[in-house]
From TrEMBL:
SUPFAM superfamilies: P-loop containing nucleoside triphosphate hydrolases. It catalyses: GMP + ATP = GDP + ADP. Keywords: Kinase, Transferase. Essential for recycling GMP and indirectly, cGMP. InterPro entries: AAA+_ATPase (IPR003593), GK/Ca_channel_bsu (IPR008145), Guanylate_kin-like_dom (IPR008144), P-loop_NTPase (IPR027417). Pfam families: Guanylate_kin. SMART domains: AAA, GuKc. Gene3D superfamilies: P-loop containing nucleotide triphosphate hydrolases. Residues 4-182 form the Guanylate kinase-like domain. Belongs to the guanylate kinase family. This is Guanylate kinase. GO terms for molecular function: GMP kinase activity. It comes from Leuconostoc carnosum (strain JB16).
Amino acid sequence: MKDNKVFVITGATGVGKTTIARYLQENYQMPRVITHTTRSPRDREKAGIAYYFEDDVSFERNHYLERVQYAGAQYGSSYEGLERAWEKNPYITIVLDTAGAITYARELGDQVVIIFVTVTHSDTLIDRVTVRGDDSAAVERRVSSPEFLRDITLPTPLDGVAYELVNDDWSKTKIKLDLLVNDIMNGRSLPKKN
Ligand SMILES: Nc1ncnc2c1ncn2[C@@H]1O[C@H](COP(=O)(O)OP(=O)(O)OP(=O)(O)O)[C@@H](O)[C@H]1O
Ligand SMILES: Nc1nc2c(ncn2[C@@H]2O[C@H](COP(=O)(O)O)[C@@H](O)[C@H]2O)c(=O)[nH]1
């Protein structure tokens, strides 16, 4: 449906994209689109909740709006996943890398609200994912990947398109999210930078 919207939450590893999606689910009943990946599950990640975990063969069976390689694994968001979420609510979320966010902006136009999440000091990201329980070798691989370095800064195609949200302090982030969601739901638009 034309009035359906998808909040695309993007940015580097550990900035808090999944935490933001969870907040929007719990407080605004926005379902998150579950995407597909060939990477292995982390401790506590459940199949069908965190991701649809695939192998190289099963990954090819889905119909993707976009797909990317990220730090050596494949990721993709399927049309079926989007429709399943929109059946539950006209406002939904998806967590993507910046390449995926650019594709969504191009393919879905006005139906997309992009939130680019950053932190002031990128060193804090390593602490955050370590506290989350990520294996130290995986953290090392991830933060030295070209995709991680790319996603730290706002890509040019998203400049003036994405809302920039600095997630240093979670209590302030929640206030900014509430303002943004209420404005979008009421057809207003906040400045893109805060
Ligand atoms: N403002 C914040 N201050 C401190 N810790 C935070 C903040 N926001 C999120 N976190 C924590 O940082 C960790 C990483 O957050 P989250 O998993 O949401 O990141 P992400 O961007 O989805 O990462 P990835 O792309 O690697 O999946 C989690 O342990 C989360 O609880
Ligand atoms: N473009 C896409 N990016 C995706 C998709 N699913 C997840 N992601 C992003 O990949 C990285 C790595 O995720 P992680 O869970 O292994 O840390 C992160 O930026 C996710 O937002 C997708 O379907 N398409």
